């Protein structure tokens, strides 16, 4: 149980284009989803927290107009990187937390590797 | 700034030995503690959660929590080369967020 999927697993795009990444909880309802970014040899950096049906809460220094997050249902959240630039190239990982299961536990998706040319 | 501290390593142990990973945290109000394993190029996967003082065992893994001293540790018995990965300690924070340590890189030598 507690499976989270992400799509696509990798994407290459040109500078200036937008990329959408989907995060789905497959076998549980995710009341909260989280989006992280990880650069090589660094730890996870939380970008934003999203609750179903409400606006995402962004961490300090994360541009909300650049990283659009939508949490339309209890099983789906999307992250759109708008006007992507090479410095946005990174490993983007979502996690989901539900009402069931051990308290405060986040289950991670497999990640999306974004390369902006 | 609430923090979670880990030795970055690398920690190198021979196959079959016990690997000991440590983590300290600054927020005395934290109630939930987690160990995740992350292989290179992959996303983190949950190993264990612990909520009460003492030890919690799951197979070859034992998590230890001491809230008074604000530390949590992970012991891996009979370490295998497949255990070679980065181990992330995480502690709950407000808003349901988890605060992650920098991770400890473990290398198990055959």
What would you say this structure looks like, in words?
The complex is a heterodimer of chains A (117) and B (110). In chain A, 0% of the residues lie in helices and 53% in strands. Chain A is built from no helices and eleven strands. In chain A, the strands form two sheets. In chain A, strands 2, 4, 5, 6, 9, 10 and 11 form a seven-stranded mixed sheet that branches. A four-stranded antiparallel sheet of chain A has the order 1-3-8-7, with no helix packed on it. In chain A, strand 4 and strand 5 form a beta hairpin. Chain B has no helices and eleven strands. In chain B, the strands form two sheets. In chain B, strands 2, 4, 5, 9, 10 and 11 form a six-stranded mixed sheet that branches. Chain B has a five-stranded antiparallel sheet with strand order 1-3-8-7-6, with no helix packed on it. Chains A and B meet through strand 9 and strand 10 of A and strand 5 and strand 9 of B.
Secondary structure layout:
The complex is a heterodimer of chains A (117) and B (110).
Chain A: E1 4-7, E2 10-13, E3 19-25, E4 30-38, E5 45-51, E6 57-58, E7 67-73, E8 76-81, E9 90-98, E10 107-108, E11 112-116
Parallel strand pairs in A: 2-11
Antiparallel strand pairs in A: 1-3, 3-8, 4-5, 4-9, 5-6, 7-8, 9-10, 9-11
Chain B: E1 4-6, E2 11-14, E3 19-25, E4 33-38, E5 45-50, E6 54-58, E7 61-66, E8 71-76, E9 85-92, E10 98-100, E11 104-109
Parallel strand pairs in B: 2-11
Antiparallel strand pairs in B: 1-3, 3-8, 4-5, 4-9, 6-7, 7-8, 9-10, 9-11
